[in-house]
Amino acid sequence: MYRVFEATLDTDLGPYSRLLWQRRIAHRIFRPDGVKVQLLAVAKADEVPQALALYQSWQRGEITPSEQDSAMFLGFTGKGELLGGVQGALRQAPLTLLLIVACCALLYLAPLIPPNQLTFDLLYPDFSYGTRRIILNRVLENFDLRTLGNMISPILLHGGLLHLAFNMLWLWELGRQIERRQSTLAFGALIVALALVSNTVQYLWGGGNNFGGMSGVVYGLFAYIWMWQLFDPRHGLALPRALIFFMLLSLVLMTALGLSMIANAAHMGGFFAGVLFGALLATVSRIRRAVRV
Fold this sequence. Notes:
The chain is mainly alpha-helical. It contains 13 helices and 3 strands, in the order βαββαααααααααααα. It folds into 2 domains: 2-78; 93-292, Rhomboid-like (Rhomboid-like fold, Up-down Bundle). The protein is elongated, with a radius of gyration of 27 Å.
């Protein structure tokens, strides 16, 4: 930081600071230890003369900060570019953004490693009820909305920051494309369907209900978009060939390795569910368009 000037402690530099942010001049106002003055410093040496000239003009009343612009970081980033980006994301992909926020919050509130009571409350239901045998009649008798919710909620749980980051990046890239091209309602229905299939497959073939993660849904979203690209490319859902190859290769490699910490059954369940849903809906869409023509 480069010192510009010092002022007495009773000088209100708030309006001047607002003026600097509106001019996109990064700065800091602070009070050094043992000194009864406040100092203003800027981030760049070549901004010192400009900051000093603005201060002198502001003191003489020749210039004042705009009331319509932010005094803080949003003004410095260019008339609320950050806020505008968030608002744009909320308009185009609100559910995708909501899922990401929920997963990030639950990483700390309900971690998979180590689990707490909230984690256990969000795990997939144990339909064997403590035994190793699932009796369908008993499951149906005890089925309720809470059970249905627990069949979906494991997608919100993650085992660590790396696990979360990987899934959230893919969820953002794939989810917002579907939500923007189709609708939030359609995307929500797809998420529920993929979660139910991938979580149930993992429970039945993975050996227990102590699992979580969005990766089964992510592979389902990937397959869903891929099928639309193949069956109805005019709809606009598409992925680069390199990405398709990477996703398929990673799915094959993880399945072949068979590592116990990877929910391979959920991956495969989500992938094939995405293939089925995508191919079916894309075919129907193409037929409808052909009939209208």
